[in-house]
Amino acid sequence: MILEVAILDVKKGEEKNFESAFSRAQIIISSMEGYISHQLKNCIEKPNRYILLVNWETIENHTIGFRESKQYQEWQKLLHHFYDPFPEVHHYTDISSR
Amino acid sequence: MILEVAILDVKKGEEKNFESAFSRAQIIISSMEGYISHQLKNCIEKPNRYILLVNWETIENHTIGFRESKQYQEWQKLLHHFYDPFPEVHHYTDISSR
Q1: Quick check: is A3 in a domain?
Q2: Spatial distance between the Cα atoms of B6 and B51, rounded to a whole number of angstroms
Q3: Are strands A2-9 and B49-56 parallel, antiparallel or unpaired?
Q4: Is residue A62 part of a domain?
Q5: Model confidence over A39-75: pLDDT tens digits?
Q6: Which residue in A16, A63, A92, A98 has the most chain B C-beta atoms within 10 A of its own C-beta, making it the best mutation to test that interface?
Q7: How far apart are CA A32 and CA A90, in angstroms?
Q8: Which residue of A15, A18, A40, A42 is the best one to mutate when testing the B interface, meaning the one whose CB has the most B CBs within 10 A?
Q9: Host domain of residue B83
Q10: Could you tell me if the ipTM is greater than 0.95?
Q11: How many helices, marked H, and strands, marked E, lie in chain B?
Q12: What is the pTM of this model?
């Protein structure tokens, strides 16, 4: 199992619109092959910051299966315009399973 | 419930020593009041990067209860010398529970 981690800085004033768009977008990611679960959480110290944590079966389920899908076009359209700067995304694995 | 998130960049070559020190340090954090659960994971793209995720009942359980405790002195001694740069730590809350 792989954890995708994205720290999302949303343009100030757009937080509510982002949350509303995300509530639609999460239906897309949840339907992808290899998707296990996700959480979106809001930063206490920086109210326009969010963290998206997604568990995938394999890294390729995210980097190929999702990012090269038609559904990703829709995800992008819903969410990417909210980000400033555009987020770096990293993948993490359990220490014990390396 | 509050999620503490720390992205930990460990000095290159010190990864195994850090993991071994962390396996001792996790006993300390797990015994603190308000601690719920934690995960330490290793970054695939940057092998000397880790993410520490800790669930606490309240933010004060971490920022006051843990950081002002005697046990934190021990935690620091075990772990802080591995980090470069010294990590920023943020706290996140569920969107729906704000």
Answers
A1: no
A2: 6
A3: unpaired
A4: no
A5: 999 999 999 999 999 999 999 999 999 999 999 999 9
A6: A92
A7: 19
A8: A42
A9: 2-97
A10: no
A11: 3, 4
A12: 0.95
